[in-house]
Amino acid sequence: MGIEHILAAIPWDKIIIQTVNGIVTGMILALIASGLTLIFGIMDVVNFAHGELFMLGAYIGVVVLATSGSFWLALIIATLVVALLGAALQITTLRPLLGRDPLTTILATFGISLVLQNYALWQFGPVARKIQEPFTGYFTLFYLEYPWYRLLIAALSAAIIGAFWLFLKYGKYGVWIRATTQDRVMAEAMGIPVPWVHTGAFAIGAGMAAASGVLFGPLVGVNHTMGLDWILKAFIVVVVGGMGSLGGSIAASIFISLLEAYASIWASPAQAVIVSFVVLILTLLFRPTGLFVPTPK
Amino acid sequence: MNPDATPMEPLVAVEDVHTYYGKSHILHGVSLHVDHGEVVGLLGRNGVGKSTTLKTIMGLVHPNRGQVLFAGKTVTGLPAHKLARLGIGYVPEDRRIFRLLTVMENLRTGLDRHGMSETRKQELLDKAFAYFPVLAERRNQAGGTLSGGEQQMLAIARAMMLEPKIILLDEPTEGLMPRMVSQIREIIDVLHRAGVAILLVEQNVPLTLQASGRVYIMEKGVVRHHAAASDLNVDDAVIHQYLGV
Amino acid sequence: MSKRSTTVYWTGFCVILALLIVAPLVLPEFWRRFLTEILIWGLLAMSSDILIGYTGMVSFGHSAFFGLGMYGAAAALLMVKPPNLWLAIVYGLIGSAGVALFVAYFSTRLRDIYFAITTLIFSQIFYVIIFTWTEVTGGENGLSFRRPPLAIPGLFSVPFTSETLHWFVLAVVTASYLILRRITQSPFGMVLQSIRENEGRTRAIGYAVERYKMMAVMLSGLFAGLAGVLYAIQNRFAAPDFVYFLVSGETVIFNVMGGIGTLVGPIVGAGFFLLLREAFSRFFTEYYLIPVGVIFIAMVIFMPQGLLGFMRRWLNQ
Questions:
Q1: Which fold has domain A3-286?
Q2: What is the total count of domains within chain C?
Q3: The whole model's pTM is what?
Q4: CA distance C194 to C192
Q5: What gap in Å lies between CA A99 and CA A101, rounded to an integer?
Q6: Which of A210, B33, B172, C111 is most buried by a 10 A CB count?
Q7: What is the pLDDT of residues B178-225, one digit of tens each?
């Protein structure tokens, strides 16, 4: 059995297609997970409602698209509206819980996710909606006609994450966010209005989730449960990437999405999700602080 | 009325303050004050509540009873970020600089305030670098890579970026080499000459007596003794009683 | 407990028990089943309280224990003819014990939020397995089966009626409550609570914290599985929906609403939530979970000790 036999047996075309798919999904997941990581890193809140913010973003996208016809307008408005909603939620339900047992924030955000899901079900009904891609157009990738739009999603997600990273590194409020994340008490002692930094961070995270929702909308139907699958994956990514590490979440998102994409060559998509579970278990067993984070001494 | 005269009320006054950490009653009615431009020392053994007193003034913990006043106004219960903006600077024990931020970014956390023009910010930065040339050299290095003494300087410089009327210094010389200790001494003098009040918590008795105008001595959550620094000597009975081994 | 409050407690207990025994005789069918369901969910929530309220380990994994109990019972009732009640219970307990062992292993290596998220993901793993392994588990459609008779082999066999089923469930739940109560008040239970208060200190005193945690998970999982068995028997089907992590979330809601660390609280919480849901679904026909969710959030913020804690305070005034 020569090398050529083995090489020929490997479905290269499928692998390359799945690599592209994996990167696309990975970038969307990275955008969602970045918001989650930001929120967790800065205020120790596990935002159960993050998937619903994603879902609401997609729905708002549907509505704006229907009234204005512009995908880009939909993207911008959905992001802004959900960011504001996020700020409002943080102020009303999370600020009162500051300093209490972390369990309470998990519960509160879980409650919010229930309310938001059912609100969406009520307003939009159980039938899935569609967001039209801003442009159609394919290029041929092996035997597939691969939509350009998918590449656009990956590029845009990367751009948003990049912009966010630049903001954190160089922006005035970026420094505030980083300082508050590292040492909330000293940040306050330096005059940084920490409660508002928390609100702002939550709003940014929410906005990022909403943007993912709109970008991802054309790929799947928009319905009230779309947040559920993503929230689980996002949690896995955040743990595997190292809780609170932005770079880790992004790396983990792409890693896990690629693995799942490859797995779906041989297994059904429903079974391919097991990959992410396995990665999680292995990470917890062998490198619980995170796969993509240097092991602390 | 001479507008430049020092106001009669103290800059910072703590009145009969009781502070708890959870169920532990740490401060049992602390009263002290610092006048504008004064350097006041706060001495006492470990665990008597000196740091807690500073944290109470800074608004990082809130007293159950008693008041904190700043420039005559009651500020008890205000959050720390408001007090920082009012003009209280805080340099905690173990420095607590932002380790993952660069030296510049550490300083910026105090500079980026409402109403600060770029020129003003640059002036303050230049002053900080003039006092602490080492920080200028390391301006783009992460705070965590600095030595202990350099971190202490950064912590003080950072507080100075707030242009505070008073700086609360919590054991600034702890763990520092003698050369650095005298550098800290100089900085206290420089700040004093610039009109900044200082409340200095220290274990180093000689330094405190030299640097301060007045001294309070605490024990078990209350102030037990209060005197002008010039009236006290290192080997006085009082010092031995409250600070001796 | 003082002599006086013990008598008060047991009197209250007997009164409530009596009410629950009489209830199916006077209630219409719908409410009869409703009450039985409250008891079953209450048992699930009680089992969860062992972890959350007594050991301080927040777990979102109860849907896995519950679901495996349910499917275990289904397996017994489908594979063994004639359908045997006790076998169903045994199979169900074995199923949930297996899952509990798996979770228990990880419980000792993770803390707090990591543990909570991981249990959530584990319950999803089981969901996916059950959902996709259609040949064995019936996949999306689940499994349906006949209800076994109440039988002691060799003595008698009597099919369940709605009333007798209710009494059977009541008996099981009451027995479980008494057992769990005994356990939480025993030295073992004290150690669990000490772990919740301060794990480091408990370890420093010399207790093998890991072993206690594992036992807590096993205990919790067993009773949750028992609830799953009861549910299977009552409803005659097993479906993957019950293994979905939302069920775990609801269980935690019952705990919080009722008051964690009280054993009784979660049952009250289950009743309260289910009643609210029922009531609101009459008024709001469609999206009644919205006000229920809002009430839950408000309770987390303003009544963190839950209904029981609130009543305790109110009564003490």
A1: ABC transporter involved in vitamin B12 uptake, BtuC (1.10.3470)
A2: 1
A3: 0.87
A4: 5
A5: 7
A6: A210
A7: 888 888 899 999 999 989 999 999 988 888 998 999 999 999 899 988
